[in-house]
Design a protein that fits this description.
Helix content: under 10%
Radius of gyration: 14 Å
Number of helices: 0
Shape: elongated
Strand content: over 45%
Number of strands: 11
Order of helices and strands: EEEEEEEEEEE
């Protein structure tokens, strides 16, 4: 069994920063791409940022230059540093990971989501 545990988030003022963390645990043979997605009010879930095991990153257009994703392969964690927050960043943020388990099965896993609220 695999779990993704998110932490961080909460309420912050516009222009300030927040950090989200995601820790993967369980029967993990290999941790492939990790990422963050978000669901803004009234919208579908969208990409925030992804990072592969070698460190290559990809960002959604709305967060480029403001958010930074990083990972620690040994600790099986991914972090999203969010700077220059805007009210339109308000939403639920989800950690995602592609994981191969010891049973040789590769699947997408999701965290439970964490609320980020940015006040103007």
């Amino acid at each position: 069994q695999v779990q993704l545990m998110e932490s961080g988030g909460g309420l912050q003022q516009a222009g300030e920063s927040l950090r989200l963390s995601c820790a993967a645990s369980g029967e993990i043979f290999k941790l492939h791409t990790m990422g963050w997605y978000r669901q803004l009010p009234g919208k579908q879930r969208e990409l925030v940022a992804t990072i592969v095991s070698t460190g290559t990153t990809h960002y959604g257009d709305d967060v480029k230059g403001r958010f930074t994703i990083s990972r620690d392969n040994a600790e099986k964690t991914a972090t999203l540093q969010m700077n220059s927050l805007k009210p339109e960043d308000t939403g639920v943020y989800y950690c995602n990971a592609q994981i191969t388990t010891y049973s040789a099965r590769t699947s997408d896993y999701w965290g439970q989501g964490t609320q980020v609220t940015v006040s103007s």
